């Protein structure tokens, strides 16, 4: 009856005589399914015969609908067949499954217009992108061997693929949120979502926007929030790949997150600009994270840093790793950090933690320098205060811990 009532409400503007039935009809279809199933629940022959009869009647109705009204909607007919099939499910399956099916029927039949509006947001390559991620995560990754590639590259193809899947997954999730859930995100939300994708790219874009729109409030807060999300993203990667390192990073990152979030809140509260941005801050400037070029660059850097890290540690020890961390801060730090998280050599947890914090600080220094070149005059002083505070605190914590 609930399904039938929903059908009546959904077709409230349709001539009643053009419907094969709504609340009473769907209730009777469900009762018929129950009666025919309970007669012989073992072989289900009466139930199958009744299903065939209802299918035939619905097929005749659908044919006449096409012939007379040139309408091809099939939803109500499929809903009627699902209603007929509920009886055996109730007797053979757990209650949560039946309730879930009913909820899905009620929701899916109601959101036709919403789904249509949602699909209009898709571009031509959206499903190709989704197919790439599914193939990468569900087909290629399980087939990769988990043995080290060589002595020089102490990472197995599986761990290499897993790193790409995890990083791409986080970036892809941020991309989907930004495009479909928050297409008109303001500056603060842009900083949060962009930081999950790439804090460096988000920082550069917001810094440039601050020069184009100096009267707009919140650019410095968005930039600092992007760095806050970088800490959270790297911590999630550490939890996924190396729990010991994650627990070692926790006190550092707790302080970094608290400091950066506090700075962001302070700058937002005391920003004298009166105007807030309207509409999307970032249009199409951040490309899809699953583009072939992006994946190729990540793969190249991952293998390169694996070879370099192994060589540097073998010849120069932990101090060499720290020097390397300082250098790689001017590049994409994710491949280097993921190599450290998965390193099977003799690098200690403490050395990995020190190198990660160093690489992040070096990257923050890079973001500061480029931002000062790109940004407007109004946010230069807050930029210097924010990033230098994070860098100085990082250096102090490295000596303390």
Question: How would you portray this structure in words?
Answer:
The chain is mainly alpha-helical and 401 residues long. The chain folds into two domains: 2-117, no CATH class; 127-400, no CATH class. It has 16 helices and no strands. It has helices at 2-10, 23-39, 45-69, 75-84, 86-92, 95-110, 112-119, 126-143, 157-181, 187-212, 219-241, 243-269, 292-328, 333-341, 349-374, 380-400. Helix 2 packs parallel to helix 4, helix 10 (187-212) crosses helix 15 and helix 13 (292-328) crosses helix 14 (333-341). The mean pLDDT is 83.
Tags for this model:
401 residues; mainly alpha; 2 domains
Tally of alpha and pi helices: 16
Query: In angstroms, what is the radius of gyration?
Result: 29 Å
Spatial gap, N to C terminus: 65 Å
Uncertain parts: none
By DSSP, the count of extended strands is 0
Task: Please estimate the helix content.
Answer: over 70%
Biggest beta sheet attributes: none
Number of domains: 2
Our estimate of the beta-strand percent is under 5%
Described by the principal axes of the CA atoms, the overall outline is elongated
Helix/strand order, N-terminal first: HHHHHHHHHHHHHHHH
SS-derived structural category: mainly alpha
Quote the average pLDDT: 83
């Amino acid at each position: 009856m609930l399904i039938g009532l929903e059908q009546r409400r959904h077709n409230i503007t349709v001539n009643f005589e053009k419907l094969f039935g709504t609340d009473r009809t769907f209730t009777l279809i469900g009762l018929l399914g129950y009666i025919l199933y309970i007669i012989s629940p073992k072989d289900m022959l009466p139930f199958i015969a009744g299903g065939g009869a209802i299918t035939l009647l619905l097929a005749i109705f659908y044919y006449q609908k096409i012939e007379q009204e040139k309408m091809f909607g099939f939803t109500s007919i499929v809903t009627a067949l699902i209603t007929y099939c509920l009886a055996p499910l109730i007797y053979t399956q757990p209650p949560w499954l039946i309730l879930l099916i009913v909820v899905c029927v009620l929701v899916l039949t109601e959101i036709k217009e919403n789904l249509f509006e949602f699909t209009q947001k898709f571009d031509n390559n959206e499903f190709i992108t989704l197919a790439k991620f599914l193939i990468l995560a569900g087909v290629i990754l399980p087939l990769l061997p988990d043995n080290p590639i060589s002595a020089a590259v102490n990472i197995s193809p599986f761990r290499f693929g897993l790193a790409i899947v995890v990083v791409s997954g986080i970036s892809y999730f941020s991309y989907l949120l930004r495009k479909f859930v928050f297409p008109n995100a303001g500056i603060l939300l842009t900083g949060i979502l962009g930081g999950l994708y790439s804090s460096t790219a988000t920082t550069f874009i917001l810094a440039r926007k601050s020069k184009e729109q100096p009267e707009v409030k919140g650019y410095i807060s968005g930039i600092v929030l992007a760095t806050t999300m970088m800490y959270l993203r790297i911590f999630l990667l550490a939890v996924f790949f190396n729990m010991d390192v994650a627990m070692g990073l926790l006190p550092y990152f707790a302080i970094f997150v608290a400091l950066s979030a506090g700075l962001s809140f302070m700058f937002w509260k005391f920003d004298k600009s009166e105007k807030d941005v309207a509409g999307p801050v970032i249009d199409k400037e951040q490309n899809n994270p699953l583009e072939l070029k992006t994946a190729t660059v990540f793969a190249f850097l991952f293998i390169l840093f694996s070879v370099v890290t192994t060589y540097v540690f073998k010849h120069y020890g932990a101090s060499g790793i720290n020097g390397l961390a300082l250098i790689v801060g001017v590049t994409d730090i994710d491949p280097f950090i993921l190599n450290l998280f998965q390193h099977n050599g003799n690098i200690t947890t403490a050395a990995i933690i020190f190198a990660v914090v160093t690489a992040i600080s070096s990257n923050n220094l890079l973001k500061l320098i480029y931002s000062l070149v790109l940004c407007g005059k109004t946010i230069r002083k807050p930029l210097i205060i924010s990033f230098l505070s994070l860098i100085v605190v990082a250096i102090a914590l490295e000596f303390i811990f």
